[in-house]
């Protein structure tokens, strides 16, 4: 995993977000890697996908929380673009690494 560890409880903008890794085959529709519940303050990530995809998905779901908390009104496509670009930046510049 490139991130040292993904803790179960992360802090963001003064709030705690519970991160859980679950089998999406049983809990979520096909083609999704993650899901955020903004009201409950949690993130679910598919535990059957490769580690790098889990990490990028975490960034994607965190952007959803930032979007909601800061009323940014960014679209799903913009969220995906931001998470992809941020993850690439962190990996390509060895800010995160093996």
Could you describe the 3D structure shown?
This protein is of the alpha+beta class. It has a four-stranded mixed β-sheet with strand order 1-2-4-3. A hairpin with a 4-residue loop joins β3 (34-37) and β4 (42-46). It has helices at 24-27, 51-70, 76-92; strands spanning 9-12, 15-22, 34-37, 42-46. α2 (51-70) crosses α3.
Please summarize what this structure is.
The protein is α+β, with helices and mostly antiparallel strands. Helix content is 42%, strand content 21%.
Beta fraction: 15-25%
Major sheet description: 4 strands, mixed
Basic shape: globular
Given as residue ranges, the uncertain stretches (5+ residues, pLDDT < 50) are none
The averaged pLDDT comes out at 88
Gyration radius over CA? 13 Å
Number of helical segments with 4 or more residues: 3
Which terms would index this structure?
3 helices, 42% helix, 98 residues, alpha+beta, four-stranded mixed sheet
Write the layout of secondary structure elements.
Blueprint: E1 9-12, E2 15-22, H1 24-27, E3 34-37, E4 42-46, H2 51-70, H3 76-92
């Amino acid at each position: 995993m490139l991130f040292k560890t993904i803790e179960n409880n992360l802090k963001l903008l003064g709030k705690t977000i519970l991160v859980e890794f679950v089998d999406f085959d049983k809990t979520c529709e096909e083609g999704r890697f993650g899901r955020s519940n903004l009201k409950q303050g949690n993130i679910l990530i598919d535990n059957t996908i490769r580690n790098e995809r889990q990490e990028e998905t975490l960034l994607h779901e965190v952007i959803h929380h930032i979007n909601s908390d800061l009323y940014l009104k960014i679209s799903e496509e913009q969220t995906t673009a931001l998470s992809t670009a941020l993850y690439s930046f962190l990996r390509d510049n060895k800010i995160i690494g093996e």
